[in-house]
Amino acid sequence: MSVTPTGQTIINNTAGLTRVQSMFQTWQGVSTATISFKNAGPLLAVSGFSGGDVNTAAKFNAVFGSCQSGNQSPIIFDASGGIIAQLGIDPLVIGFSSQCKLSSNGYIVSDLILLNGAFQNGVTQPQLTPNQFNQAIIHEMGHFLGLDHSQINLNLFTTAVNSGQFG
């Protein structure tokens, strides 16, 4: 989930998956909704990506293409911020969500989230606390669910900030 510019692992994949599951649990805990999430396993191999770490724009584009086909809804750890840089996205983007495919009725078939691990590597500036990083990604998960900037996002954000839930 996060590595230093020299390649030292700061947050490994297992810890990253645990954090993401905790972030999704925040949405599952919203009292006015009923929703659940399941980790479907590693990213599917597709043309241009044989599995493992998505660490280049080319691999990201291959996985994104699979998402656009409706085959998977990937959570991508950009451990170094390298994918963000290669895609020409502002390096201050903490993460983003993108709806990949919608049904003919407008329902989300597949979506993706990318997390910029550079904000957790202890080197790149600015750094975020784990709580701040998680809050930003929980916000992106709201978009993953099809929410825009709604009142529940504000309530969820305020609750997480005030409780120190992730820090």
Strand content: 15-25%
Unreliable stretches (pLDDT < 50, length at least 5) are none
**What do the pLDDT scores average to?**
90
Instruction: Count every helix, treating DSSP H or I runs of 4 or more residues as helices.
Output: 5
* Tally of strands: 5
Quaternary state reads: single chain
Description:
- There is one protein chain.
- The chain has 167 residues and is an alpha+beta fold.
- The protein has one domain (2-163).
- 37% of the residues lie in helices and 16% in strands.
- The chain contains five helices and five strands.
- The strands form two sheets. Strands 3-5-4 form a three-stranded mixed beta sheet, with helices on both faces. A two-stranded antiparallel sheet has the order 1-2.
- Strand 4 (95-102) and strand 5 (108-116) form a beta hairpin.
- Helix 1 (13-28) crosses helix 4 (130-144) and helix 4 (130-144) runs antiparallel to helix 5 (151-163).
- The longest helix has 16 residues, at 13-28.
- The protein is globular, with a radius of gyration of 16 Å.
- The mean pLDDT is 90.
What key phrases describe this protein's structure?
single chain; 167 residues; alpha+beta; three-stranded mixed sheet; two-stranded antiparallel sheet; 5 helices
Task: Give the topology, please.
Layout: E1 2-3, E2 9-11, H1 13-28, H2 57-68, E3 75-78, H3 82-86, E4 95-102, E5 108-116, H4 130-144, H5 151-163
Parallel strand pairs: 3-5
Antiparallel strand pairs: 1-2, 4-5
Write a compact overview of the structure shown.
The protein is an alpha+beta fold and 167 residues long.
